[in-house]
Every structure is written in C-alpha cells, then in structure tokens.
Design goal:
The chain is an all-alpha fold. It is built from 20 helices and no strands.
C-alpha cells in the first residue's frame, strides 16, 4: 500500500479498494464487504421504534397470525430498495432529484409536501422510541428522554463529516446490537414454531383492527424515506468507469440488499414472535411498549426486559440519525437546497415534542405514525417504478418485464390496503371485517 493510502481516511481507502475490486485487480472472500453499507443504513428504517409498536400489538393481540404481513412487507421492501439503489448507481441521481427533473412542478411540490409529512411521522416514531426506552431505564420524564435522544442523535450525525464509511460502520454496529438482542430473546421466550411457520405462510386478517395493525406493519417496514435515501446513498458512493463495472456493482448491491433486509425481516419476525409467545396467551391486552417492558420482567425475568430496552435504545438513536440523513437528501433533491443539520433536525422534531406535550399515548402515536407512513408510501413507489422501467433513463439497465410486473403488483397491494383502511376510517362497511 502506498504512503498516501496509509495516511488517507477510511472512506478514501474504501473507495480505492472498491475501484480495484471493480476493475478485477482485487478479489477474495472479503471483497463483498467493501460494498456493504448503503443497504445496511437503509435497513435501520425497517427496525425503528415504529416496528416495535406495531409488532408488539400484532403479536399480543393476534398471536402468530399476522406474521405473513411481515414476510410480505419485507419481500416488497427488498424489491424496492434494490430498485432505489439501482436508480442511484445507474443515473447518479437520487429519486427526489429524478422527480424534480422528470415530473411537472405541481407534482414535485406535492410529493415534497407528502415526504415532509412522512418525515415528521418518522421522527415521531424514532424520538418516542428512544425516549420511551430512556424513560423506562432511568425513570426520567418522557420529554427529557426525547431531549437526550435529540442530543445523542445530533452528536452521531457529526460523524458524517468524516466520510461515508464511518457512518456505515456506526449504523452497522447498532444494527448488530438490535439483531443480537432479538437473537437472545428467541432463546428466552417459549416459541410454538409450528404455529409461527403457519402464521408466516397462511394469509389471515381476523378483523378490522388486524387490518389497521397490518397497514401499520407495512408502513413501519416499507418506509418512504428509506426508498428515497437508498438512491442517495449509492449515487456518488462509487465511481464506475464502464458498463461492466456498473453491472458488477449492481450485483454486489443486490446481494447486500437481500442480506441486510433479510436480517431486518428476521428481526421483525422475532419481534412478533416474542410478543406472541410472551403476551398472547394470558396478556393479550399488552398493546404498549411500556406495558410490554413491565410485563416482561415478571414473566421472563429482568434480563429479557433489559435486552428489550437495549434494542429499543439502539433502534431509536440509529433510526433518528438515518431519518435526518434522509430528510436532508429529500429536501435537497426536491427543492435544490440544503439547510443546516440542526435546522433540519428541528423541522421534523418539533411535531414529535408537541404530540408528547399534549399527552397523547406514546404507543398509539407510534402505531398511527406508521399508518401515516403507509399512506405516504405509494408516491415514491410509483415514481420509482416509472423511472426504472424507462429505457431513456436506465439504458441497458432498464427493468426486466418480471421486475416491472413484480414492482407494480407490490405497489397495487400497498395502495389497495390503504384504500381499504381509508374506507374503514370513513365508516364504510367492508365485507369480511367486523
């Protein structure tokens, strides 16, 4: 390695190694790790506190029966995160920038407004999750916990100034903490694996409340800001010199998406299984994170409750960092300017503080924030399908017919569930739902 390489930053050394791998000058079993990062960062959106809230309600109220929703949502998420990454790699523009370039101004402004509302809902979930964990762990007021979460988040965001690799390693470490916590939980709770397997494979919606929670699960799993963010993480991360290198980069990207989101999906499945195994049989009324914590202690011991809180703290802090990164990228893409990180953080953080100050139930706020995200989701999904199926934009990397059909089906499923939910909210009786 050259003297310049020894003294270069972690990000610069990573870029140098990636260039050698793409050109064929570097290979080996560790080479794929050079490309790990964007999907890991995006995957934290699939393990945020909103997931905790919706998954606890799903498991405690309906046992294993809504696990199929988690599986379906995760498969849709894999497809759309892969498409988002591909858009950034091929066009070197993120999804928000493509919308600004390709769509009429009224549509662009409307999408930006919807995206900002979704960002506020995301922040609500992230701050409430971190604050709840700190409040339960240290017996501090919820508002104080939100303040501490905000300070920690801002401090971690400063790492971004040192390049993309330190951020990726930091978020990857927090993802590992969350995954390890739920691996431990699986050894603590008594699981009916046969029933869990049936719940993953057999679609079932017992009643209207199950539908609301299902839409919340989808909103917590396939997240609008993650779809926008992934294209921004890949657009400038790696410089490719020719189509062959770009094709190789896309292959590594797809592998990372499958692995990272498989881990996120397993964490979500573990959340539902934990709630079902611990609460459904005798404590199906457990619908709040606070109640789950206090119920876990006598049922499974203080270790189980402590692991639960540790995973929630890691989730709240890491997803808050990623949410701010996404919000900054979305604003810059749609309207063409950046604002200071502290102001960006403030714009979407204030509504969360207002909700808590009003005394709204924290877990209910978390669940309904995920429903808001699900309602905001079709816009980026439709835009992503439109752009990645156009040969004039994607060239030889345009979607195959199978990919296009699969992405359209995924979008239709999301839109259909949203329509049913809106009809239900409006008081329209839906056959099959009491």
């Amino acid at each position: 390695m050259s003297e310049m390489s020894k003294n270069s930053t972690l990000t610069e050394r990573t870029n140098e190694a990636i260039g050698e791998a793409l050109s064929g000058r570097k290979s080996g079993m560790m080479t794929p790790l050079l490309f790990v990062g964007p999907a890991v960062i995006a995957s934290i959106a699939y393990m945020d506190p909103g997931n905790f809230a919706t998954n606890i309600q799903a498991g405690s109220k309906f046992g294993y029966s809504l696990l199929w929703v988690v599986v379906m949502a995760n498969l849709i998420a894999m497809l759309f995160q892969a498409l988002s990454a591909k858009l950034g790699i091929v066009t070197r523009k993120n999804l928000a920038e493509m919308c600004r370039d390709q769509l009429p101004p009224p549509v662009v402004w409307g999408m930006w407004a919807v995206s900002e509302i979704a960002a506020m809902a995301t922040d609500l979930a992230e701050f409430l999750g971190g604050a709840l964990a700190l409040s339960l762990l240290f017996s501090m007021p919820l508002l104080a916990g939100m303040g501490v979460t905000a300070v920690i988040t801002y401090a971690l965001l400063m790492v971004e100034k040192r390049g993309f690799r330190p951020v990726e390693l930091m978020i990857g470490g927090l993802v590992a903490v969350i995954a390890l916590c739920y691996l431990v939980q699986m050894f603590i709770v008594p699981v009916d694996w046969a029933a869990a397997g049936m719940g993953m494979l057999v679609p079932k919606l017992p009643n209207a409340e199950a539908l609301t929670i299902s839409v919340g699960i989808i909103g917590a799993t396939v997240m609008p800001h993650a779809i926008f963010l992934h294209s921004g993480l890949t657009q400038h991360r790696t410089l490719v010199k020719n189509p062959a290198e770009r094709r190789k980069l896309l292959r590594f990207s797809n592998i990372e998406v499958v692995v990272a989101l498989s881990i996120a999906g397993l964490v979500n499945i573990a959340m539902v299984i934990m709630a079902s195994s611990a609460f459904h049989a005798g404590h199906s009324d457990v619908a709040e994170i606070e109640t789950a914590y206090h119920t876990l202690s006598p049922l499974l011991g203080i270790a189980a409750a402590g692991v639960f809180l540790l995973s929630l703290i890691a989730s709240g802090i890491s997803s808050s960092v990623v949410g701010t990164m996404a919000g900054q990228m979305i604003m810059q893409g749609f309207v063409g300017f950046r604002i200071p990180i502290w102001l960006r953080r403030l714009v979407t953080m204030v509504p969360a503080f207002i909700v808590v100050a009003m005394g709204v139930n924290a877990t209910d706020a978390l669940v309904y924030s995920q429903v808001v995200l699900s309602l905001a989701l079709p816009a980026p999904m439709i835009a992503l399908v439109m752009f990645t199926r156009r040969r004039d934009i994607m060239g030889e990397f345009v979607n195959s017919r199978l990919t296009t059909v699969s992405s359209i089906v995924g979008t239709v499923v999301i839109v259909a569930l949203n329509v049913v939910l809106l009809l239900q909210i409006a008081g329209v009786q839906i056959p099959g739902f009491a």
